[in-house]
Amino acid sequence: MCDCFSLFSDLRNLSGTTLMNLLAALFMSQLLYVIGVGGVPDNELCIALAFALQYARLCVFCWMLLMTHNMHNQFRTGLHLVPITDNQITRNFVRYSFFGWGLPSVLLGASLLIQYHDKAGKLLDTRSLKGQNCWFLDKNAFVYGLLAPSCLLVAVTFYYLVRSAVLARYIISIQADIRIREKMRRKRTLQILLFTKLTIVLSAVLALGSATKLTRSDPVWIAYHVGQGLQGILVAMLVTCNCQVLKLYTRSLKSRAARHVSCYTGRGGASTAASALSKSTSLQLLTWDPVPDPV
């Protein structure tokens, strides 16, 4: 996904930056999950892993909310397909960063206090954490530090999704040109559906993790393993397929092949052939045809 960010300029805006931060937080949570596979015997590493995972999970839901908030703002200010240039992108991104990375820090501090109180000051007592590979804090710190805030963030995310859908429907209906109306409908629908799918996937994994922590059921434990393991792949596939990166790449290859064939066969005139020749890296086009007369 970082390659897509560097290659496609459409991602280098506030929407693309929030998406990259979401993927970064998701990658961090997946990496920490893998570290805990097989158990963590060291007490310091165990408690650090549990707190780090809780922070990463909170960051994921915060950035998901920020993505939907930014989408709603775009729909509200953009009455046409051409997006309005954001002259305050730096200030808006700083605000988003304070929320996306700062709010989880505050909630993590609250979780630390709850965990410290429940353990009577003995934070390195990780016997209750090692039973689940140090992926979760104790019950109170998990419920009040992760589950309750995440449910609130998901609820606000769905609120912005519904508001965005209603707003998009109204804006589409006032477009005079039928072609612009249909194009806008496809674009807005793809974006809303993508964010809805991402929110559902993240919420489902959170629900499985919560059920695993609270019920300690073996079937739910296995289901959580599967969901957490596939979460990153599902999110990457949803984002990639929605952005149609592969279609864009194959389209560029076809256009290059068409220019190569037209130049090689001599169609398009001398100026077109010379222009294509100057931009070509094909050795076949760098030969002299016809062969020049000897001097």
From TrEMBL:
Membrane-protein topology: Multi-pass membrane protein
Keywords: Membrane, Transmembrane, Transmembrane helix
Transmembrane segments: 21-41, 47-66, 98-116, 141-162, 189-209, 229-249
Pfam families cross-referenced by the UniProt entry: 7tm_2 (PF00002)
GO cellular component: membrane
Domain G-protein coupled receptors family 2 profile: 1-243
Molecular functions (GO terms): G protein-coupled receptor activity
Gene Ontology BP term (one): cell surface receptor signaling pathway
Intracellular or extracellular location(s): Membrane
Protein name: G-protein coupled receptors family 2 profile 2 domain-containing protein
Protein's organism: Exocentrus adspersus
